[in-house]
Amino acid sequence: MRLADELVARGARMFGAWWCSHCADQKETLGREAFGKLSYYECAEDGANSQSALCRAEDIKGYPTWKIDGEYYAGEKDLDELEKLLAKGK
Length: 90
Prior knowledge:
With 90 residues, the chain is an alpha+beta fold. 44% of the residues lie in helices and 18% in strands.
């Protein structure tokens, strides 16, 4: 939960798609409660609450993609990798 709180405090976003297995794994890694705190953007046009136009505007090419401190990081991240990305921006 501390990591999720830090991601929220830094305005982190995750872009993904409902059909993306790596996105599902990323959500599972974080846990339901922690992931529920984060800003998630559904990029699939047929996904619930789709924000595909925003994903195109942000030039998101793969899923999941994280945006932390204005930088983009493609691919699934474990908790240690997310911690390192947060530390990088400090």
